[in-house]
From TrEMBL:
GO terms for molecular function: citrate synthase activity. SUPFAM superfamilies: Citrate synthase. It comes from Galactobacter valiniphilus. Keywords: Acyltransferase, Transferase, Tricarboxylic acid cycle. InterPro entries: 2-MeCitrate/Citrate_synth_II, Citrate_synth-like_lrg_a-sub, Citrate_synth-like_sm_a-sub, Citrate_synthase, Citrate_synthase_AS, Citrate_synthase_bac-typ, Citrate_synthase_sf. This is Citrate synthase. The active site is at residues 268, 319. Pfam families: Citrate_synt (PF00285). PROSITE patterns: CITRATE_SYNTHASE. Belongs to the citrate synthase family.
């Protein structure tokens, strides 16, 4: 009997030097550096260069990248025109997917898969994508485009283009931390999708577009949005004490688990004793709860986490603290996973380049269990 590895669980399919997820030591390294150290000390721009190049940038390399990144942030009019054709009630992940496709079709190096062209395309996509998220958030609120500012860094500018005002330094920092933590996570479903597409020798934008499709689902990136739906279903009452909110959240979780529901934001295919990124993201959420003075959010967070731990000992994943963090910053719930795209463009494109450099067509086998051979007539 052939052993079937459903969901490829536990299967090691290739090498990667981009990141190392170690569930035993509960650690995550990007190119050898613990993600917690990067989140504490490095800009998202530096982390992107680390993921692509394998080393942190020199000051000169960082300055050159920063300069080009800041000049490539404008919302491309062709992308804006394509977004404007999409209904306001389509999911923002559809907008992100379409935008990457339009950017690819218009990229002069679209069909050039040399290492230099791949890196240049990755950098352009990195620079261009925040304007897509910001514009989509604004158009859903009936607001116009806010032009990027070259005097702001990536995180500051992302928030500026979205909300049309400069964010407080604490908010910018929490956003930067989320981008660093979301950047890369080895052979997760969307990255693997990008590698499968690349393995056919297809182009970088096709691989990223496909990866966005994989990220959208609630078992993967879509969980950050789903967490907020849970909070909303429980009900966010801004005048409620932390304790009362926690009690209501606990009761909600007990009921959901009694009904055998899967609660998004908990559990992980690789980490079985907690996600290495959660403590850092939870600390950022705590700072936002304090900044916006919203203790009831902490009550909801703690109540759900405790009840899940008591009932099933399943721990939160990164999407759990990220969702409420983006909510407090003022993003609409459906925009959370597109923010994840902006971060994961770095990891995806690093993997696309790695796959291309040592390619083998990804094509597993299946065990046939359909009807036996039969014949017409
Ligand atoms: C950035 C990211 O993409 S992180 C992941 C984001 N995804 C989510 O938050 C979605 C919710 N979580 C899940 O669906 C799962 O934990 C996954 C898909 C992430 C990992 O799943 P797997 O490793 O395949 O574990 P699997 O789904 O088989 O779960 C094992 C057991 O734990 C239970 N379980 C796992 N996660 C949850 C959950 N979130 N809520 C309730 N029960 C859960 C399952 O029901 C199953 O129970 P059973 O053995 O009694 O049937
Ligand atoms: O690794 C996974 O399966 C999912 C995940 O946490 C990520 O992509 O960040």
């Amino acid at each position: 009997m052939t052993e079937i590895k459903k969901g490829l669980a536990g299967v090691v399919v290739d090498y990667t030097a981009v990141s190392k997820v170690n569930p035993e030591s509960n650690s995550l390294l990007y190119r050898g550096y613990p993600v917690q150290e990067l989140a504490a000390h490095k800009s998202f721009e530096e982390v992107a260069l680390l993921l692509w190049n394998g080393e942190l940038p020199t000051p000169q390399e960082l300055a050159a990248f920063t300069e080009s990144e800041r000049t490539e942030r404008d919302l491309d009019p062709r992308v804006k025109a394509a977004i404007d054709l999409l209904p306001l009630n389509c999911h923002p992940m559809d907008v992100g997917r379409t935008a990457v496709s339009v950017l690819g079709a218009n990229d002069e190096q679209a069909e050039d898969s040399s290492p230099a062209a791949e890196l240049a395309k990755a950098k352009r996509l990195f620079a261009a994508f925040p304007a897509v998220v910001a514009y989509d958030q604004r158009r859903r609120r009936g607001l116009d485009v806010v032009d990027p500012r070259e005097d702001l860094d990536y995180a500051e500018n992302f928030l500026w283009m979205t909300f049309g005002e400069e964010a407080a330094p604490e908010v910018v920092d929490a956003f930067r931390v989320s981008m660093v933590l979301y950047a890369e996570h080895s052979f997760n479903a969307s990255t693997f999708t990008a590698r499968v597409v690349t393995s056919t020798l297809s182009d970088l934008h096709s691989a990223v577009t496909a990866a966005i499709g994989a990220l959208k689902g609630p078992l993967h990136g879509g969980a950050n949005e789903a967490v907020m739906h849970t909070f909303n279903e429980i009900g966010i009452r801004t005048d409620e004490s932390r304790e009362d909110a926690a009690a209501r959240a606990k009761a909600w979780m007990e009921d959901a688990l009694a009904q055998k529901k899967k609660v998004m934001g908990f559990g992980h295919r690789v980490y079985k004793h907690g996600d290495s990124r959660v403590p850092t993201m939870k600390a950022a959420l705590d700072r936002m709860i304090e900044h916006y003075d919203r203790p009831e959010m902490l009550g909801l967070y703690d109540g759900l986490e405790q009840a899940m731990d008591e009932a099933k000992a399943i721990k939160p994943n990164l999407d759990y603290p990220a969702g409420p963090t983006y909510h407090l910053m003022g993003f609409d719930t459906e925009m959370f996973t597109p923010i994840f795209i902006a971060a994961r463009i770095t990891g995806w494109t690093a993997h696309i380049m790695e796959q291309r450099a040592a390619n083998a067509l990804i094509r597993p086998l299946s065990e046939y269990n359909g009807v036996e051979e039969r014949h017409l007539g």
